[in-house]
From TrEMBL:
This is Ribosomal protein S18 acetylase RimI. Residues 1-174 form the N-acetyltransferase domain. GO terms for cellular component: ribosome. The keyword Transmembrane does not apply. InterPro entries: Acyl_CoA_acyltransferase, GNAT_dom. Coiled coil: none annotated. It comes from Asanoa ishikariensis. GO terms for molecular function: acyltransferase activity, transferring groups other than amino-acyl groups.
Length: 177
């Protein structure tokens, strides 16, 4: 039995365990160590407007998508390369950022990722949504492209991380189910 729940409260320890299972092959990379996943999850959970969708399969956490609205003075777009400067301008209500998204490998073929994203974004009041995806994660950025996300530039989110593609999509996404 699969359930997807929209929530404003999450268990960071439980999410961290699933995150580490999802990224087991890449935990040696700086992307997954500095800052730690616990730090990144806490920053997201503590952000004003934090919201998440979590998926449980047979009562066990199988995946999650977490995000928050970007503040007007955000660092989200810092060092964005090859992009229209208008992309990085923020105002209240402009952008919702997906900060973390992951699904356990054994549940990926069950199409949990798309419902998690759609359930999170369907009722968002912002004009657009953004997500940074490692440039090597072609499976995810192609799936997001099918939902209408466009590549607007590249950046390195934290020192030493792999380059990430910055993706943006107009909201609402309700019609894309």
């Amino acid at each position: 039995m699969t359930s997807v729940t929209l929530t404003t409260t999450v268990d960071i320890a439980e999410l961290s365990r699933v995150y580490r299972d999802v990224h087991a092959a890449d935990l040696h990379l700086v992307d997954h160590k500095d800052p730690t996943v616990e730090q990144r999850l806490a920053w997201t959970v503590d952000a004003p407007g934090f919201t998440a969708t979590v998926a449980h399969v047979d009562g066990k956490l199988a995946g999650a998508v977490l995000g928050c609205p970007l503040p007007t003075e955000t660092l989200w777009w810092r060092d964005l390369a090859d992009a229209d400067p208008a992309v990085a301008r923020e105002w209240a209500g402009r952008t919702f950022a997906i900060c973390e998204a992951f699904v356990l490998p054994e549940h990926r073929r069950q199409r949990l990722g798309v419902p998690l994203i759609l359930d999170l974004l369907t009722s968002r009041p912002e004009e657009r949504v953004t997500m940074a995806v490692a440039e090597t994660n072609t499976r995810v950025w192609r799936a997001l492209g099918a939902l209408g996300f466009a590549h607007v530039g590249d950046l390195v989110p934290f020192p030493g991380w792999r380059p990430h593609r910055m993706l943006v999509c107009p909201l609402p996404l309700a019609s894309r189910r």
